[in-house]
Specification:
Elements: H1 2-27, H2 38-57, H3 67-92
Helix pairs in contact: 1-2, 1-3, 2-3
């Protein structure tokens, strides 16, 4: 059961990160947001390294940064895989 619990915690951590990522992406729609604020600065320092990976792959198209779509897709895939692995370990009794 311990191995299954580890994968479950990892999956929930990925889910929490996806919520933070969603908040970060939604806040970019508001140009007047002060990113030097303590909470927003922390949010951008947590999510920007992950987003920068995809910004290097997909440049902005017509002023819109669609790299976050690929970031969400990959994070959702990883999250589902972690939940699936955890479910398999629970079913075999680890």
């Amino acid at each position: 059961m311990v191995v299954g619990e580890i994968f479950t915690v990892l999956a929930y951590t990925a889910q929490l990160f996806s919520y933070l990522l969603l908040i970060r992406v939604l806040l970019t729609w508001f140009p007047g947001v002060d990113w030097n604020n303590g909470v927003l600065s922390a949010l951008s320092s947590i999510t920007d390294p992950y987003l920068n990976i995809f910004r290097g792959i997909i440049p902005p198209i017509g002023g819109f940064d669609i790299s976050s779509l690929l970031a969400f897709f990959l994070l959702n895939f990883i999250m589902n895989a972690l939940f699936g692995v955890a479910r398999n370990f629970y079913s075999i009794g680890y």
